[in-house]
Amino acid sequence: MAGASPQELGHMRPSISKGSSSFVGSGSGIYFVRTVQSAFSRNYRRESEAVDDALVPGEDDRLQTGSPSGCIWYPNEIIQLPDTHPSHAMNFDDLTGWSKQYWDNWHPPFPFLHAPSILGVLERVSLEGIQSLSTVDSITVRSILSISVADRRQMPPTRGKLVPSNLVFNTVDDAISCLAPILLQPSTVASLQSLVAIQLFLVSMLRLNAASRVGGLITRIAFQLGLHRCPSRFQQFSIADADMRRRLYWAIYSLERYLSQSLGLPLDIKDDDVDVCYSDKELHADDSRQISSVQQPHDPRLLLLPAFLARHGYIKGLILELRHKSVLHRTTDQDEAAHVDSEISKWWNEAQDLLDPHYMETEESGGELSNQGNISSLKESHKLLLIVQKHESTILLNRPVITSAPNSSMFASAMQKCIGASKQIVAKVYQHLQTGMSEAGSRDGRVQNPLCWPGFTWCIWMSGLILVYAASEGHYSVQIAQRDAERCIKILEILAMRGSVWPGACASALRDLQKALTSKFLNGSVDISQPGQSPRISNPRSIETPSTSSNALQSRQRQEQITGFQFAGTLRGNESVSPSVANPDFRPMSSQQPSQLAGSQNGRGNHRPTNAASQPAATSLQADQFPDPTLLGMNGMFDMGEQFDGVGDIFQLMDASYQLGEHMFEPSFAGRH
User: Fold this and answer.
1) Rounded-to-integer distance, Cα 39 and Cα 333, Å
2) Which of 135, 160, 357, 546 is most buried per CB count within 10 Å?
3) Are 446 and 154 in contact (CB under 8 A)?
4) Residue 342 domain flag
């Protein structure tokens, strides 16, 4: 039966600049964020009521430059060279080592570059220097090496040569300024690849608005080059050219879908305008014999991961069109939602085969498994990406229902689906980090398979919000929600090591919501229903309301119940809340005392992330693992400034692009040589 669609709304903000504005759409989750803050509005204090309760990770690229240098790298990551320095004072092994993280982490899901050709370019750099390259090749090399340097922040430190500064983007503006020379040249596949490389660098650094603007340019050039048409339909393309065009298009498509959802913006690419076949499912060859007789330029199994990510992008587009169109056109029925749900299940039933360690092997006639092409199985971080994408889709489809249809069977069903998906995301990511730290012998969160994909920040942030909100409304255990929220905070603190303020900001907001949930629970505003009973909200009074003796007794009983579950430990931020897991008290940023790790506290007890420059952290790593002992404080946590003062103020971060300084995203070099 047709009816009104769940009504999540976007948010339009005025800019400091006269006549300007900024919009973030409902697909980003902003409406749910504001709903959660409203649910806790009685249970935390703030000095100012004029708070914009909006936070979307990644919307941070319009910040005013607050650092004289604007450099995004630490001194132990690159070596500053003057422009006149001969940049070819390196060998080929150095360049391949510096770029290894890109090929391991980013090339498998987004294979828009031809790796042998890029290796040839790197060999030329080792012999003649980067100044010998064309503009397009130079930009591509700098993008690859910049991404690799950022990836190493989340990995155990190793000794080796530092990357020369002229081989990377030293500022975000440096990367964006490279667009101009490309636009002055005729559009080619090579120039489009360099643009996608710039966009991927911006995405990897969580500069999503900048990446989205570059994406608009990329989309128009892709249309101009005809990448939205299947190359197998045209005889003018060789097999290798057709393969590269297909790989490039699906990388563009997947990134476009990610950015559209993250920022809540309309889709740039409409599926009914495209007929490009997936890499593993060619539909435009004359017949099956032609497909089998064609010599593939590589093993087609290598493209299964990007193919499934592209299919997930298609599902994400379906959800955005279903749930987040203009309100005037946002009508649907349950059959449409059921169709999208079936697409999610179909995708997962096929994608989960990639998680099988023997999936890349083929069965011979004797029943034995053989890996003829010596194709390795997926990295653990890429397997985790597929798992998280599945549960992310469930949240995207059902979250609008829990904000617009209370006290209905649809609401109850959607709430439990969101809770289940959120629990799976948190558990899988947390276990990945636990296993990685155990294998690496690390206690600071650095692992060999780091969480490089920026979407992990959004998924963990949204999962934490859902679980805390569900507990506050009586749909989920308060104690378990507190445990899960604490895990979310630890994961976000690890993600903050990459250098973006957003994971740390989300962790700070979740910690304050933890406190608000505690206040709401002790205040009697949350009713812990018995199994089989419907949850209900009782006594929705403010925390400042005096308690009767009976209410005080109930409050003490709740406190005892919480303490028995080690709930009080979560409020300090670092003690274990789950004795059943290995290494339950891992400290993602350092081995400091809890008060140091969580950041300083203001007079109201609200945590602020620790300034890495002013308060170097003593990590569990040995000092000789870094060239400079003062760099031991590099833990990804940046000074949030005086404008952030608790859970109320943390929701101002959606306006960070107009309020914050660039120093929040950069290491402080004051007092360093």
Assistant:
1) 28
2) 135
3) yes
4) no
For the residues of 369-414, what is the DSSP string, one character each?
EE-TT-PPPPPHHHHHHHHHHHHHHHHHHHHHHHTT-TTSHHHHHH
Q: Which domain holds residue 487?
A: 8-66+396-665
Q: Is the distance from CB of 413 to CB of 405 less than 8 angstroms?
A: no
pLDDT tens-digit map of 24-77? 666 666 766 777 777 676 655 443 333 344 556 666 544 443 444 578 999 889
Residue position matching structure tokens 């089998």: 292
- CA-CA distance, 318 to 295, in Å (whole number)? 35
pTM of the shown model = 0.77
Residues 480/135, Cβ–Cβ less than 8 Å: no
Outline where 18-170 has alpha helix (H). 30-39, 92-98, 100-105, 115-128, 135-152
Q: Which residues contact 596 (CB under 8 A, 6 or more apart)?
A: 590, 610, 615, 617
CB-based contact 344:390 (threshold 8 Å):
yes
- 552/400: higher pLDDT: 400
Contacting residues for 475 by C-beta, under 8 A, at least 6 apart = 412, 415, 416, 419, 535
Q: What is the 3-state secondary structure (H, E, C) of 447-458?
A: CCCCCCCCHHHH
Residue 452 contacts residue 204 (beta carbons within 8 Å):
yes
CA distances from 414 to 14, 303, 466, 531, 546 (A): 33, 34, 11, 19, 36
Residues 303, 246: Cα–Cα separation, whole Å: 11
DSSP per residue, 467-481: HHHHHHTTSS-HHHH
Whether the Cβ atoms of residue 326 and residue 126 lie closer than 8 Å to each other? no
State the Cα–Cα distance between residues 165 and 194, nearest whole angstrom: 19
Structural domain count of the chain: 1
Query: In a 3-state reduction of DSSP, which class is residue 6?
Result: coil
Chain centroid to CA 422: 15
- How many residues does the structure list for the chain? 673
240-244, 275-279, 373-377, 387-391 — which is least confidently predicted?
A: 373-377
The 10s digit of each residue's pLDDT in 521-575 is 777 665 554 433 444 433 333 333 333 334 444 544 444 444 333 333 333 333 3
397 in Cβ contact with 324 (< 8 Å): no
User: 383 lies in a domain?
Assistant: no
Element (H, E) at 2: strand 2-4
Strand duo 163-164 + 2-4: pairing: unpaired
Q: Which H helix or E strand runs over 306?
A: helix 304-323
Interhelix angle 455-472/501-522, nearest 10 degrees? 10
SS3 661: strand
CA distances to 104, 544, 583 from 613, rounded to whole Å, are 31, 39, 28
The closest of 360, 385, 351 to 110, measured between CA atoms, is 385
CA 34 to chain centre: 20
In a domain, 447, yes or no: yes
Q: In this structure, is residue 594 part of a structural domain? A: yes
Closest CA to 615 of 598, 628, 601, 596: 596
Query: 209 φ, ψ to 5°?
Result: -65, -45
SS3 445: coil
Three-state secondary structure of 575-636 = CCCCCCCCCCCCCCCCCCCHHHHCCEECCCCCEECCCCCCCCCCCCCCHHHCCCHHHHHCCC
DSSP assignment of 152-166 equals HTTS-----PPEEGG
Check the CA dihedral 52-54-57-59 and report its sign.
negative
451 in Cβ contact with 495 (< 8 Å): yes
Q: Using one digit for the tens of pLDDT, what is the confidence trace for 341-356?
A: 999 999 999 998 888 8
Per DSSP, 43 falls in state: S
